[in-house]
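Table S2 (text version). Query chain:
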Amino acid sequence: MSRKPEVLISFPGGKRVDAAFRTEVVSTDQPVDAGGEASAPAPFTLFLASIGTCAGIYVLGFCQSRNLPTEGIQIRQRMAFDPETRVLSGVELDIEVPPTFPEKYREALVRVADQCAVKKAIQAQPEFVVRTVVVSGDAE
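Corresponding structure-token output:
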């Protein structure tokens, strides 16, 4: 059986929570008004940023593979939240390009950004399993 990829979550102090994956560590914290130090993005902020930055990786790769300049290109992300539940209900991504960006590639940018792996994972609605597991000895 193949081993599933793992992320190890740890609690370095205060309201901070870190996620370690292989050799990378992603730190999160809570805003000051929620008892944190605002030393890093909050987990939900990081989640939202992962949507736009993932689309950005695809846009960047498209431009780089065609030697298209990326100066002046940015993605503006807007989120909608259900007013009653405050749950994320929609995301809009506007790929802003300068007037000099070739018109023939503009729709292609939309198609490549639409391939974003984070967006696809959200749309797939993965099943979440949360449980307590008792471990003996020292945790590594």
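Notes on Table S2: The mean pLDDT is 95. The chain has three helices and five strands.
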